Amino acid sequence: MEYDFIYDNLPLSGFGLTLCRFDTASMETVSAGSQISFELGTVPGREKRNFIDRVYQEAITAVFQAAKVENGVAGELTPPELSALMRWLNRRDRFCRFKLLREGYERLYTYASFNVSKIEVSGRVVGLELSMSTLYPYLLEEQPPLTCDVPAAGLTLALTDNSDEIGHIYPCLEIHCRSEGDFTLFNSREGRTTCIRGCKNGEIITIDGENLIIHSSDPQHRIQDDFNYIFPRIVNSFTNRENQLTAAGIDCTITLRWSQIRKVGF
After folding, report:
1. In whole angstroms, how far apart are CA 171 and each of 11, 142, 175, 211?
2. 32 within 8 A of 60, measured Cβ to Cβ
3. DSSP string, 220-234
4. Mind listing the pLDDT tens digit for each residue in 244-257?
């Protein structure tokens, strides 16, 4: 079965290659990530161990094979083609966004880099083996942005957190202010209130939930002094995925962007 992927906004097929498997008789086992390591402790005189902390033991890894396939035959890769592929895939500068173009994975992505090995037959390079390392122990599912016009009197939004991970997600929030005043965003599930004082008409305020950074388009607004540093969250428990967020305080348009966690591997 043949697949394609997009890496750093470029498709593998754009380089004339497709994902394939050279040895159909063999099978391989690759990590699906989400391997959790638990830290446990004991109390003297008791056999039961106590839960202290937990971490994901490893990120997702996977191995792909790729080739120029014509009529079921792998064509030779030239040195200039290899050079372009190595420059694209074997990145030392950063981990780039990766999306596998496969049924069921249309909205799933991660951030990855590759180690690349050549597959040779009689001294001819006929394919590549791509060993992928990622930043996350799971995949992310991008949600459609949610944009709403909010009156100063307030607006309540109902959101469902369908993440495979019990806990919380910090979304990215963009606020286009159309009046002056103090903006608040309250999540009734946790009783948490995000507050930004001194908002100005025409100002655009951005909260980066992934890196927990706030920024204002108005250089005169000392946003760091007017923010209570309670970043908005979308939460879920095992039995309850519903959230109610109430935005209020100023006339504005807000846009929420977030990605849910998917523990499906590749």
Report:
1. 28, 11, 13, 10
2. yes
3. TS-TTTSB------E
4. 999 999 999 999 99
